[in-house]
Amino acid sequence: MDPVGVAAAPPEAGPGPAWRNKCPWGAPNTTSISCSLADVMSEQLAKELQLEEENAAFPEVVAVAEGPFITGENVDTSSDLMLAQMLQMEFDREYDAQLRREEKKINGDSKVSISFENYRKLHPYDSDSSEDEVDWQDTRHDPYRADKPTTTPRKGFIGKGKDITTKHDEVVCGRKNTARMENFAPEFQVGDGIGMDLKLSNQVFNALKQHAYSEERRSARLHEKKEHSTAEKAVDPKTRLLLYKMVNSGMLETITGCISTGKESVVFHAYGGKSATEDKVIPPECAIKVFKTTLNEFKNRDKYIKDDYRFKDRFSKLNPRKIIRMWAEKEMHNLTRMQNAGIPCPQVVILKKHVLVMSFIGQDQVPAPKLKDVTLSSEDMKKAYYQVLNMMQQLYKECNLVHADMSEYNMLWHDGKVWLIDVSQSVEPTHPHGLEFLFRDCRNVSQFFQKVGVAEALNERELFNAVSGFNITADNEVDFQAEIEALEKMNEDHVQNHGKKLSMFSSDGDPPIYDE
Ligand code: ADP
Ligand code: MN
């Protein structure tokens, strides 16, 4: 959909009810811009991206409009254009409803009926937003089915007396051609021609039809390509453009290929380029984590972010696309905290929307092996264990974080030490489920090191106490878990009553005091 077209639809004066000129955007603008259809098509992506950049400067708090026109879910109104479009859409809806009433009044019970379908403003593909966007407004219910072009009755003419018009009439034929444009594929941009009183000559119509068909075939081919390319699986055109921009700006030298495709992200390897600013050095090798912008995956993970008070206020006002960006943002913040505490982890290079660039852990395009895949001497394994114990304590005490997905899958062995990665889901310990996440992390870690034969490895309960500074004495898992949940509940009750979180740990490393 042409994002500008809807808001600026020039309602040309013409036959039809007088009220059809009533446009909320003031005087109709009838100047036509002369450019070829091909130009319009190629500008499409650029326009969309421009629009997105304008309305989604991140981070931002999105205003929520509750006007007479908008009902249901919160709608992103960060852009005036979007608001204008929605108003125009609402106007068009009312206009069409009125049109239908008018039509009904005129036709009554008559066998021969006339149709105003040509004048309708809203069309099925008006709601068809660009392929990979998952805005709330995309789910808007569209009550209109596909239009049929008006036809002249079999007798070949309409009207009476001197007002008679035949099917060969230039005007009728032209309008009919305009209406027939709706039979083109929905992706085919016919602009606002259908809503206007356009008269297309047969010659122009046929040329358009040819073009529409070849566009349809081309887009089917493109679609197929997109679906089948594995390396670029999660990379939609917009993401690709973001990546190209990074290479174009010289920040990255080349993007060599994909390291990992997961449920929530795809990770690429790239060679670093030159930084625009002197004070920043781009690492020679980078990892690019692209967070997937699909609805399903984010649903599974929203519990990590919804209750994180750092993001709580923003969460409810955002659409899925923005929540995905918050994942990337969260990973960036968490990595920065870890970096500051001196925990070995990727160093953040840049964050652009849902794309996070960081330093690459590994060498010559080969990523460091995960702890689960590496074969270490028992000496090294023991060293790794103590390092992990140390990192968990640092993470908790110095970074005020719980990893929440800690396991041998998210620890890499590189340069003779363990590197922590994948921290988009990490939360602060005061998160309503923070301590449960920590306990789960402890279970993974202690089970792994016990399995690989580190005799010194604490069991999960001992590890939990060692990391958190709590002193839970339960000697079995069930009771231990119950105490953890009781602690979390106490904290939540405190928030309810006092509006702020209890400090779960004190600066001198003593166990926190829970004596309210
Ligand atoms: P996911 O949520 O998909 O598990 P991760 O952040 O764990 O995302 O990344 C997936 C995989 O990509 C990791 O297991 C690791 O092999 C690789 N990877 C991620 N970040 C880096 C990095 N900075 N350097 C090297 N490899 C990385
Ligand atoms: Mn991972």
Q: Could you explain how this protein is built, in words?
A:
The chain is α+β, with helices and mostly antiparallel strands. Among the domains are: 158-226, no CATH class; 234-367, Phosphorylase Kinase, domain 1, CATH 3.30.200.20; 369-501, Transferase(Phosphotransferase), domain 1 (Orthogonal Bundle). 41% of the residues lie in helices and 10% in strands. It has 13 helices and eleven strands. The chain has helices spanning 3-7, 37-55, 80-107, 170-180, 202-228, 237-248, 295-306, 309-315, 320-341, 378-397, 434-451, 460-468, 477-498, and strands spanning 157-158, 165-166, 252-261, 265-272, 285-291, 348-352, 355-359, 362-363, 366-367, 411-414, 417-420. The strands form four sheets. The chain has a five-stranded antiparallel beta sheet with strand order 3-4-5-7-6, sandwiched between helices. A two-stranded antiparallel ribbon has the order 1-2. A hairpin with a 3-residue loop joins strand 3 (252-261) and strand 4. 29% of the residues are buried. Mean pLDDT is 73; it is low at 1-24, 26-43, 56-80, 123-151, 224-231 and 505-516. Manganese (II) ion binds next to loops. It holds the Pfam family RIO1. Residues 137-148 have a biased composition (Basic and acidic residues).
Q: Could you give the topology of this structure?
A:
Elements: H1 3-7, H2 37-55, H3 80-107, E1 157-158, E2 165-166, H4 170-180, H5 202-228, H6 237-248, E3 252-261, E4 265-272, E5 285-291, H7 295-306, H8 309-315, H9 320-341, E6 348-352, E7 355-359, E8 362-363, E9 366-367, H10 378-397, E10 411-414, E11 417-420, H11 434-451, H12 460-468, H13 477-498
Antiparallel strand pairs: 1-2, 3-4, 4-5, 5-7, 6-7, 8-9, 10-11
Helix pairs in contact: 10-12, 11-12, 11-13
The structure holds adenosine-5'-diphosphate and manganese (II) ion.
Main location: cytoplasm
GO molecular function: ATP binding; metal ion binding; protein serine/threonine kinase activity
Protein name: Serine/threonine-protein kinase RIO3
